[in-house]
Specification:
The complex is a heterodimer of chains A (about 110) and B (about 120).
Chain A: E1 4-6, E2 10-14, E3 19-25, E4 32-38, E5 45-51, E6 56-58, E7 62-67, E8 72-77, E9 86-93, E10 101-103, E11 107-112
Parallel strand pairs in A: 2-11
Antiparallel strand pairs in A: 1-3, 3-8, 4-5, 4-9, 6-7, 7-8, 9-10, 9-11
Chain B: E1 5-7, E2 10-13, E3 19-24, E4 31-37, E5 43-50, E6 65-69, E7 75-79, E8 88-95, E9 105-107, E10 111-115
Parallel strand pairs in B: 2-10
Antiparallel strand pairs in B: 1-3, 3-7, 4-5, 4-8, 6-7, 8-9, 8-10
The chains are: A mainly beta (about 110), B mainly beta (about 120).
Chain lengths: ~110, ~120
């Protein structure tokens, strides 16, 4: 089956620094990955996605890197701001359906002023 | 415009009671998803509705859980004979089309269920 894990439960960074949040997945057949941001009391918010035929995708201040060889993806946030403080989840699409995702347990990002 | 709404926002119930959670998706969204999020955990898929197709109930953890959807509008998730392990935040999401979740999928704020 599929499992998705994160390396660190909490990441503390200085405002203005870059943040890197890591995620590992177990199923080499997973072909689509999403990063979500979840603020306290709110539902997850889509940040960025990447398909398995890519190894890098950039958005506004965010970059996702995918290493299929070691089944690892990361989310990089440039110039981290206080508003970036939240829990970040990675999710991988399962191979048996187009709409089921396996979520990691989340990393809490704390931004120090 | 209005997003996905859920009610109640918080629900405290006694063990053994039944609860009903409601989700109002974005108007016109044909796909609707329910997820469960235990404290400090990621989301677990529960059930998926797409238009008039038979729902995918494969994520429901037991027969105490059921969900209905009226056409392409409101959905209710019912948990019968609640147990303490049912305590979690229940999230609903909708999307204009089915298939892959992603940038077109919008989540509600969730219902926090506490079973005492």
């Amino acid at each position: 089956g599929e499992s998705v894990g994160l390396h660190l439960p909490t990441l503390s960074v200085q405002e203005g620094d870059n943040s890197i949040i890591n995620c590992a997945y177990s199923n080499s057949a997973s072909d689509y990955f999403i990063w979500y941001k979840q603020e306290s009391g709110k539902g997850p918010q889509f940040i960025i996605d990447i398909r398995s035929n890519m190894d890098k995708r950039q958005g506004q201040r965010v970059t996702v890197l995918l290493n299929k060889t070691v089944k690892h993806l990361s989310l990089q946030i440039a110039a981290t701001q206080p508003g970036d403080s939240a829990v970040y989840f990675c999710a991988a699409r399962t191979t048996d359906s187009s709409y089921k995702l396996i979520f990691g347990s989340g990393t809490r990002l704390l931004v120090r002023p | 415009g209005a997003g996905v709404s859920q009610s109640p926002s918080n629900k405290v119930t006694e063990k053994g009671k039944d609860v009903e959670l409601r989700c109002d998706p974005i108007s016109g969204h044909t796909a609707l998803y329910w997820y469960r999020q235990r404290l400090g955990q990621g989301l677990e898929f529960l059930i998926y509705f797409q238009g008039n197709s038979a729902p995918d109930k494969s994520g429901l953890p037991s027969d105490r859980f059921s969900a209905e959807r009226t056409g392409e509008s409101v959905s209710t998730l019912t948990i019968q004979r609640t147990q303490q392990e049912d305590s979690a935040v229940y999230l609903c999401a909708s999307s204009l089309r089915g298939a892959t979740p992603g940038p077109e999928q919008y989540f509600g704020p969730g219902t926090r269920l506490t079973v005492t």
